[in-house]
Design goal:
Blueprint: E1 7-12, E2 19-24, E3 27-33, H1 42-55, H2 57-61, H3 71-74, H4 79-92, E4 97-103, E5 109-110, H5 112-115, E6 121-123, E7 126-128, E8 134-140, H6 143-159, H7 177-189, H8 194-207, H9 212-216, E9 220-224, H10 227-238, H11 244-248, E10 253-256, E11 265-269, E12 274-278, E13 281-287, H12 292-295, H13 304-321, E14 326-335, H14 340-343, E15 349-351, E16 356-362, E17 378-384, H15 385-391, H16 396-423
Parallel strand pairs: 1-3, 13-14, 14-17
Antiparallel strand pairs: 2-3, 2-9, 4-8, 5-8, 6-7, 10-11, 12-13, 15-16, 16-17
Helix pairs in contact: 1-16, 4-6, 4-8, 4-16, 7-8
């Protein structure tokens, strides 16, 4: 596939392995989870890669421990802003701040205010102004234009490879990134033009994520080694899990009562990944980024410790929070719905074009197995990983539209170049 010509694509073997992207010597190394599907449609594949890279910021935004201490790894990349700025350049060219230029030629709009300041010619009782002053807006190659080019350079270096766009900008910072942020904010505050404000906002998103050294270097790395946490957050988002104080109510807590102490001491909380409420039902979901979704091997399902933890959550909710309600337990694991082993599995229940499938349930044998309570049954589902990337947040649809638009603009640009060569 053409977009992968200059990309070394590898799959992470385990949930704690590094995933993400790195650049060196014009080569791109992309490491993705095993469940990530390489789609045949290039437009879809580009969108999925962008969404995968954007999803990495979920872990970075909450300051989880990452694989490196470099600036590139400490902050999430503003993927959407990179794509927006490339689209803006392809649609409109470089951004120039336009200024009004006055001249004495007839090219432009007559400025009567300035023209009337000249001495007229009086002929036969008529007043004639023979030196008309005209005005027109002319692009100014000022500091804001320079900053725009720096931001575009960043965008092309980080995601331009995805569109096979070989255009490079040989622009280097004239001032510090802090000063560039200040200048863009000043410009943004002085305009009421909505398009300009959106452009400046994306420029700020890019500038505020890099330092002076990061702008100058030609090697980049954007990786994490805790993508399992990203998966947990995406599941919580797509199922609209409870948050804040409401969710904390569902945390079972252990205590110690030591000899000689008057009061028990808190040990720690157990924290379920996702808790959902639907009418009188409480769903306790544990997102597990285990390998079953690509191996179809029962040994890669959650172990007994994980099963017991879910039973504990359910027991706590049933006894302490909602004894009259219905408590449900579930595991959700990622998978690739196009794998033949799953496509040919006649024993699973499929929902929504196999984007969600039910595979069975787990339990522990130290409860009353013959009369299991609802929360002692842990139902297991698989969710298609690429589907999850595209749907865990609605805004991602916009990113896909931008990527598609960029492709059409690039195709138009290539066709125009061919026509120019024919004319020459």
């Amino acid at each position: 596939m053409e977009i992968l010509n200059n990309v070394d694509l590898t799959y992470a073997e385990n949930a704690k392995d590094n995933v993400g992207i790195s650049f060196s010597n014009d080569r791109v190394e992309l490491v993705v989870p095993k469940f990530f599907r390489i789609e045949k449609d290039e437009h879809v594949l580009k969108t999925d890669i962008l969404l995968f890279l954007e999803s990495i910021s979920i872990a970075k935004k909450i300051n989880y421990k990452n694989s490196s201490n470099t600036k590139d790894n400490d902050d999430g990349w503003p993927i959407e802003s990179y794509v927006w700025l490339i689209h803006d350049y392809l649609e409109n060219g470089f951004y120039y701040k336009r200024e009004t230029v006055y001249s004495k030629d007839l090219n432009g709009k007559i400025s009567w205010k300035r023209t009337l300041k000249n001495t007229p010619i009086i002929s036969n009782g008529n007043i004639i102004y023979d030196k008309l002053i005209t005005s027109k807006n002319s692009p100014s190659n000022d500091l804001i234009t320079h900053i725009y080019k720096i931001c575009l350079k960043e965008s092309l270096e980080k995601v331009g490879w995805l569109f096979n766009y070989g255009f490079k900008i040989l622009e280097f910072p004239l001032i510090s990134s802090e000063e560039m942020v200040y200048r863009v904010k000043s410009e943004m505050a002085s305009t009421y033009d909505d398009v300009k404000r959106i452009r400046f906002k994306h420029m700020l998103n890019i500038l505020e994520k890099v330092d002076d050294q990061a702008i100058k270097k030609d090697r980049f790395q954007y990786q994490i080694n805790n993508y399992y946490y990203v998966f947990e957050q995406m599941i919580d988002s797509i199922f609209n899990g409870l948050s804040g104080k409401e969710k904390k109510r569902y945390n079972p807590t252990g205590h110690w009562m030591l000899l000689g102490e008057d009061d028990p001491k808190k040990a720690s909380d157990l924290r379920p990944d996702t808790v959902c409420k639907v009418d009188d039902e409480t769903f306790i979901i544990d997102a597990k980024m285990y390998q079953y979704g690509c191996t179809h091997n029962i040994d890669d399902l959650p172990d007994t410790q994980s099963l017991q933890k879910q039973v504990t959550y359910g027991e706590y909710v049933f006894n302490k929070i909602d004894r009259n309600g219905k408590v449900r337990n579930a595991f959700i694991l990622p998978y690739d719905k196009e794998l033949e082993s799953f496509k040919n599995d006649e024993n699973i229940y499929r929902y929504d074009d196999s984007n969600l499938v039910y595979i069975g349930e787990g339990y522990v044998d130290w409860t009353d197995v013959a009369n299991k309570k609802d929360h002692e049954r842990i139902f297991a589902f698989l969710i298609d990983f690429n589907y999850l990337l595209n749907h865990y947040t609605a805004k991602n649809k916009m990113l896909g539209n931008l990527a598609t638009k960029i492709d059409s603009l690039l195709e138009k640009d290539i066709n125009n170049r061919k026509e120019d060569n024919i004319e020459d």
